[in-house]
Amino acid sequence: MWQELLSSLEGELDSQDSGLWLEPLKPQPLQGSRLTLVCPNQLHLNTIYERFAPRLRQRLQELRPDLELALEAPKAAPRRASRPAPKSAPAPRQMELPRMGALQMPRLNQRYVFDNFIAGGGNEFAFAAAKALAGGGGLFSNGLFLISGTGLGKSHLTQAVGHQILGYMPETRVAYLTAEDFTNQMIAAIRGKRADQFKDRFRLGCDLLLLEEVQFLAGKDKTQDELVYTLDALADAGKKVVFTGRMAPSQLQGLAPALVSRLSDSVTVGIEPPDFNTRVRILRRQASQEGIHVPEEVLEFLAQEIPDDVRRLRSSLVGLMARSSLTGRPLDLSLAAEVLGQIADRLRRVSPGQIRDLVANVYDLDLKLLTGKSRKKAVVRPRNLAMCLCRRHTDASFAAIGQVFNRDHATVMYGVDQIERKLEIEPKLTAELAFLEQRLGVSSN
What CATH number is given to the structural domain containing 390? Predict the structure, then answer.
């Protein structure tokens, strides 16, 4: 099967890439529906996961829809087991770092623990890596970089690491914040003439750094320099770090090479949208926690209609349960179809190809130019708008959208993220998007 998969990719991949990265992979005997490939080492595994995994999985689905792909590093020699958490241990708590004026570290969400995370197709490697980092063995690194779009669980896993470590060592000083928080606190410290206090807070007063959404640092040179020094200090002291972002460090535009190098020292793991069975399990667990019985066909309907966003998947179930409670109507398919009807109709109304063609027509661009390699602003802006519309108004994955625009999934994620961020500050862009939605016959989210 592996040889057939390799042969099917001939002509699509550079022969040097194929020889260097793919040919060394060792297929293992099939275990049920899983094709497992073992990489020579952890670095090799990280590179495969970052650069080749989406294409390999997509092609495997085309050749053998009944199989799923798993990637592994060689089994390491057993290490001394980590001390298990005592059954009577108190609830994990986050140690407060000194306050910086009016700014304070966000606290960890008590719901975001490993026991509440449903691992399955798309996220099980990330789940295992996060648990390994928190448990102190098996990851061969003190850093973890989680990659995904919104609503797929990277914040959950990040905070779960903090909870787990605090459960073993309550004295651990945990700093959990976003890259934007880090930037704002640094600016406030400089303006308040407390720069040294800010530096000591993270370099000397932090045992575990959890830093979310690092793409926000793009173009912020001084903040990047400060973070580089901070990461060097933490690395020298053997401290642990967890980062999250929309794409791999090497693909984030606007980051200095020094920071990319430090971020790349971490084990990089992507989180993909959960498969259908995992989505059903997520909903089943949530219904159980709420103490409400939801028929299996309703859970399956929701899982089918909302494929790519766990957060929206959960909120749809909450909305459905609330509607049933307030109206006295039974939790059945009829009510579920009514609640999700407008969304489902919108998702089925347009396709990525239709959106691509409309945008090309509106902006008077040749399709070859829109889907080509041009980096001119007059092309990139409409292209990113089109990809954003695909995410908003179709159920296509990042990889599927990438096929329509001749882009990989990471490039699509970045383009969509650029539009979403600029919509908050550029009224003209908001108007353009609304006009395109009107032409498509769809309503805004």
Answer: 1.10.1750.10
Helix ranges (H only) for 394-426 are 398-405, 409-423
Residue 433 near residue 388, CB atoms below 8 Å: yes
Euclidean distance between CA atoms 412 and 393, whole angstroms? 15
**pLDDT of 17 higher than 70:** no
| Domain with 372 in it | 352-440
**Three-state secondary structure along 37-55?**
EECCCHHHHHHHHHHHHHH
Q: Is residue 374 part of a domain?
A: yes
Q: Which residues pair with 13 in a beta bridge?
A: 10
For the chain, percent helix, then strand, then coil, each to nearest 5?
55, 10, 35
Radius of gyration in angstroms for the set of CA atoms belonging to the chain, rounded to a whole number: 23
Q: Is the pTM of this model over 0.70?
A: no
Q: Say if residue 296 is exposed, middle or buried (CB neighbours under 10 Å; 0-12, 13-18, 19+).
A: exposed
State pLDDT tens for residues 317-372.
887 887 888 788 888 888 888 777 644 554 456 788 889 999 998 899 999 999 99
In a domain, 109, yes or no: no
C-beta of residue 217 within 8 angstroms of C-beta of residue 223: yes
pLDDT, one tens digit per residue, over 268-306 is: 999 988 888 889 999 998 888 888 889 999 999 888 888
Query: Residues 166, 253: one domain?
Result: yes
**With contact defined as beta carbons under 8 Å apart, do 278 and 120 qualify?**
yes
Co-location of 342 and 215 in the same domain: no
Q: Which of the 8 DSSP states describes residue 359?
A: H
pLDDT digits (tens, 9 = 90+) for 372-423: 989 898 999 999 999 999 988 887 888 889 989 999 887 898 889 889 888 8
- Three-class secondary structure of residue 345 per DSSP: helix
Tokens of 103: 């700014």
Edge to edge, the sheet with strand 34-38 lists 26-27, 34-38, 68-72
Question: What is the maximum span of the chain, computed from C-alpha positions, in angstroms?
Answer: 67
